[in-house]
Design brief:
This protein is of the alpha+beta class. It has a domain of about 60 residues. It contains 2 helices and 2 strands. It has a two-stranded antiparallel sheet with strand order 1-2. It is elongated, with a radius of gyration of 20 Å.
Length: about 100
């Protein structure tokens, strides 16, 4: 996509981060705090479905280190070839619970 822009040099990097949580409930609370929702619908799951989900997820994905959540960040860097002024990667703080 960017290769077609004359006079632009660019690079791409994808970095995968994994955050560990003590439990599925702690993971879900963290996601909720970030504004992540489970469905586009406004319907709230029943207490039974919630318990079934958290139990299943805990049994399937929990390790001795807790429950992990991974996300990928894509970094695009570019600069004008003639100016030589790079656009730098922003520094992000790591978040651990």
């Amino acid at each position: 996509m960017l290769a077609g822009l004359p006079g632009i040099e660019f690079s791409f990097e994808e970095v995968v981060h994994t955050v560990r949580h003590a439990s599925v409930i702690a993971l879900l609370k963290s996601l909720k705090g970030a504004g992540v929702t489970h469905t586009p619908e406004r319907k709230v799951p029943s207490a039974t479905r919630y318990r079934d989900f958290t139990r299943y997820y805990q049994e399937r994905f929990a390790t001795a280190d807790g429950v992990g959540a991974s996300y990928a960040v894509a970094y695009f860097r570019g600069r004008l070839a003639e100016a030589g002024l790079p656009v730098s990667r922003p520094r992000l703080a790591s978040h651990q619970e």
